[in-house]
Amino acid sequence: MSSLFPKSFLWGGAIAANQVEGAYLADGKGLTTSDMQPKGIMVEPWESRTGDEFNIKDIAIDFYHRYEEDIALFGEMGFSCLRTSIAWARIFPNGDELTPNEAGLAFYDKVFDAMAKHGIKPMITLSHYEMPMGLVNQGGWGNPKTIECFERYAKVVFARYQGKVKLWLTFNEINMALHAPFTGVGLKGKPTKTEIFQAIHHQLVASARAVKLCHEMIPDAKIGNMLLGGLVYPLTCHPEDVHLALEENRHWQFFGDVQVRGTYPSYMLRYFRDHGIELVISEQDKADLKHTIDYISFSYYMSGCVSSDEEITKAQANILNMVPNPHLKASEWGWQIDPLGLRVLLNVLWDRYQLPLFIVENGLGAVDKLEADGSINDTYRINYMNDHLVQLEEAIKDGVEVWGYTSWGPIDLVSAGTAQMSKRYGFIYVDRDNEGKGTLARKPKASFNWYKEVIGSNGASLKR
C-alpha cells in the first residue's frame, strides 16, 4: 500500500535535557527542579543537596558527552526531526542573571551543528520539566518576576540559534502543573488551587511573550505549545458520565484554548468562580495573551475513562484521575494502550483549533530483555507504534493537518515519572540500570531497523 503521509512529513524522536544529558553541574550549570527529584515528578523533592546524594539523572545516559554518537544513530535511522530541550539552568544557572553562561550556549551550538550534519531539523522546547532552583526559591512561577526571567532567557536563545532552529515549543506538557505543581510551575509544598492557577497564569503570559519574541526575531520560524493529551471517555453512557468527561477534557484543553485564542474561555471563568479562585490578571497580561501560537503539539500515550460513581473513581483512578477502560489492555506500568484514541484526539484538536498538529511524544515504556546473542527483540514496541501510526494515517485521511511525529524516546533514557532506566522506550538500548550501573554502551534493538524502514518508506511499510 502506498503512503498517505505528506512528502514534507517530519519523522523522528523526542528527548529532554534533564532525562538524557547528565553533567548536571558541568560548565557552570545551576541546579534545577529535576536535579531535586530523584524518584520522579510525582514524589516529594529534596529540600537541598550536598552533592553526595544519588540521582540517576546526574549522569542519565551522558548525552552531554555522547551527543555526536547518539545523533549519528538517529541520522542512521533517517530522522528528519529531533525534538529536545535546552536546560534553562545551563544558560542562566540561577535563573535571574542578566548575562548568560557562554559555556551552556556553546554546548547547544554543537548539538544543533551535529543535527545539521545529519540533515535533522531541531524542534526545541524552552522548558521541559525543569527550571532553575534559584527561581523556585524566589517563588517559582508564583512570582510574576519569573516572567521577565523567562523572557530574557527566550530572547537570548532566539538570538543565538535563530539560524539553526526554526521549530520551537515553550513549555512541555504545560497542563501537568495541575498534577505536579513543583515540576510544572516550581511551587513547593502543598499549594492551594488559587496559587497553582496564578502560577499557571504567569506561565501562560510568559509563553505568549516568548511567542511574540519568536515572531519578531525569527520571522521564518514556527512556535507552538505542548499539551499532555489526556483524552478521557465517559465510563458509561449515563449523562452524568458524559458531562464529567466533557469537564475533565476541558481541564487540559483550557491550556490550548488560551494559547490559540488569546483569552480565557468562559467555562474556565465559571470554574474559577465556583471554586473561589481569584487571579491577579493585569491589562498588560490580557494584551500579552493575544500573541498566539502557530501550531499545536502534544504527547499521547494512553486514554482513560471517568465515572460519576465516586466509589469507582476512588478505587481505580490513577494520577490523572483516569479510571481504567474495561475494553483496553495495559502496559507493564498500567498505561492503557489505545491506538484509535490517537485518531480521536487528532480529530478533536483539529476540530477545536484548525491549526497544524505535531505529535511530539508517543511510545511504549517496557522492560527489554537482552538475549544470549545480544539482540533485543522488542516486537511489543513495534506493534504498539505500528498501530498508532496507522491511526495517525487514518486521521490524515480524515483531513487533519499533521506536520510530524517524534517518538518518545528514540534512545533509552531516565523516566520522568519514576526516574527508572528499566522503563525503556528506545530503539537504541543503553547499558545502564536503575542503580546507575553499566557501561552506557549503545545497541540498536529490533525496532531500530523497523523504524528506519518506516521512515525510509514515509510510512508505506506499516502493517495496516
UniProtKB/TrEMBL annotation:
Key word Transport present: no
MF terms (GO), sorted A to Z: beta-glucosidase activity
Active site: E361
InterPro entries, per database record: GH (IPR017853), GH_1_N_CS (IPR033132), Glyco_hydro_1 (IPR001360), Glyco_hydro_1_AS (IPR018120)
Coiled coil, from the record: none
Top-level taxon in the UniProt lineage: Bacteria
Keywords in alphabetical order: Glycosidase, Hydrolase
Any one Gene Ontology cellular component term annotated for this protein: cytosol
GO process annotations (BP): carbohydrate catabolic process
Family assignment from sequence similarity: Belongs to the glycosyl hydrolase 1 family.
Protein name: 6-phospho-beta-glucosidase
